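REVIEWER CHECKLIST
Item 1: Sequence provided? yes
Item 2: Single chain? yes
Item 3: Sequence as submitted:
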Amino acid sequence: MTLDSLDLLLFKNYDEAHLSFARHVNCLTGPNGSGKTNLLDAIHFLALTKSAFTNTDALSIRHGATYAMVRGRFADDAAAGAIDTVQVNLHAAQKKTVLLNRSPYERLSEHIGRYPLVLLSPYDTDLIREGAEERRRFFDGLLSQRDSAYLDTLLRYNALLRQRNATLKQFAERRRADLELLAVLDEQLVPPGRALSEARARFLVEFEPLFQRHYAHLTDGAESVALHYRSQLLADEFGVDTDFGTLLADAQRADLAAGRSTVGPHRDDFEFLLLPATSGFDQSPRPVRQLGSQGQQKSFVIALKLAQFELLAARHRRKPLLLLDDIFDRLDERRISRLLALVADGTFGQIFLTDSHPHRAAALLRPLTSDLKEFRVENGHVGLEPAR
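Item 4: Structure as written out by the authors:
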């Protein structure tokens, strides 16, 4: 599966643009702020129906406009001649619409996973530095691309959670609670909540070895790393499972006081752990955020994304689109060389990368592939650079 072309209208800093892509490597070069990352974000919209960098669709509409359009043509390598056209319409005052071959989706979730995608960006270290919400969003996004049933469960849980939180807020404002209504909401919330936690725990058993292998490759096995899923719903240190319904009942007083749900899988976390390399008495894993150097943190998130790529490729039996944003300015020579080796051995499929230095990326990658295009981006305008 490859993205053959991209059309933009009033998207971010673009009035209009058309790009026809190479099936292997596409380099987007230009000064910082010229719109390179916006092109990657347009591809992200096509695959996942949303921006990678903002939760507000209206911010992706060109300043002063009320509408934006992103359209892409995907070719299916497994079915000769098969072309899908995906179009995303953004409106300042309406909900966005996503069309596949001119037919709108009734539910946007039906589109997720059809065109798998992995993005490696400078913001990925937020997974380490920021709070649990960032890590949950990463793993939920990965699981949603991999398994439509998980996405359906997540959407159902989030909708019920919003309803429960709105009800708790009303109770707090009125200073009067309807405990029978709350019990009904709790009963509805328990099954999807339990299913989410169990699915995340099962997934991590499969994901962690892949992640550890990629980390070892990036660092020559210099130290060991681990992932740990922390959930209130799973077995405690004594191996005793916690019933979600009981957990909600025990937290009822705290929820009524706070006006929101204080327990459940929306509070879960994924711990990123590093085992100290030096010998000593205390060899217990510690958070990468506290113990890891900048280089170790970068290796950690790259390994997460490479494991994500491998898992999605195996699940969908085709290689995800790979978006690499500004990696040549953010990574050291060793990590760059490891990624280039993966390009050379055919690990990746179609690649889109940005670089602020003209021709640098193309010079490094052209010896590895004959199928490469370089685009020059200047203030929202895109031109194809001649081959060198």
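Item 5: Key structural point noted by reviewer: The two ends are 27 Å apart (CA to CA).
Item 6: Recommendation: ____
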